[in-house]
Amino acid sequence: MRREPIRVLLVDDHVVVREGLAALLSMQGQVVVVGQAGSGEDAVRLHAACQPDVTLMDLNLPGIDGIAATRRILLASPGARVLILTTFEGDERIVKALEAGAQAYLIKTASADELRLAVRRAAETEASPGKAGPVWRRLTRTRRDLLTERELQVLTFLSSGASNEAIAEKMRVSINTVRTHVQSVLRKLSVDTRTAAVARGIELGILYLRSRNPFK
């Protein structure tokens, strides 16, 4: 069993998602994030510079996508371990990513414990260049299985940094009701903080960052 922390490179084009993932992974002190990339090109460059044990790779990236980035990383470092993060299990690009050399994939509905377990297994499993390794995943769920419309509304307000008081005034409900909704959102998204909830909402495709203020 590994004793030293697992070195991880996070690749996603949303800063808030990367920060949320970093927070989730570092909770137990067994993982250290050594780099964060917002594009495929940056992922390839940082992998060469940081030499992480595991790279968490989103598929949707500006420039070259996650598949091309995975292919380039494995070409330069045949023993690299890439764990694909995807929103939908039925995404046809998963197969292409595995064919490109990714070791496994993980559905973004995975809990924090499942995420840490997948990273640990990816780090501990011997890499097999050119072959898809074991696949650890969790079946995706539909949006209505995750949050109610009210909870989704609260999550949208959280993304703007709104306080419970401000949300209560806008939704015309009591602060206690807002607190209940917030706690339910955190529980259903398997996170501990409001920031992590926003990050997970974006990961799951149920929350989109908007330039406009949701209070307007």
Structure commentary:
By secondary structure, the protein is an alpha/beta fold. The chain folds into 2 domains: 6-124, Response regulator (Rossmann fold); 143-203, Arc Repressor Mutant, subunit A (Orthogonal Bundle). It is 46% helix and 12% strand. The protein is built from 10 helices and 5 strands. The chain has a 5-stranded parallel sheet, with helices on both faces. The longest helix has 14 residues, at 175-188.
What is the compact description of this entry?
With 216 residues, the protein is α/β, with parallel strands linked by helices. The protein contains 10 helices and 5 strands.
- Architecture (CATH level 2) name of the largest domain: 3-Layer(aba) Sandwich
SSE-based structural type: alpha/beta
Q: Beta-sheet strand percentage?
A: 5-15%
Q: Roughly what percent helix?
A: 40-55%
Name of the CATH superfamily of the largest domain? Response regulator
Number of domains: 2
CATH topology of the largest domain: Rossmann fold
User: Which value, in Å, is the CA radius of gyration?
Assistant: 18 Å
What is the number of beta strands? 5
Reading the helices and strands in chain order gives EHEHEHEHEHHHHHH
Secondary structure tally, helices: 10
Mean pLDDT: 81
Q: CATH first level of the largest domain: which class?
A: Alpha Beta
- The backbone outline, from C-alpha atoms, is elongated
Low-confidence stretches: 127-144, 209-213
Strand order of the largest sheet: 2-1-3-4-5
Distance between the termini: 53 Å
Largest sheet: 5 strands, parallel
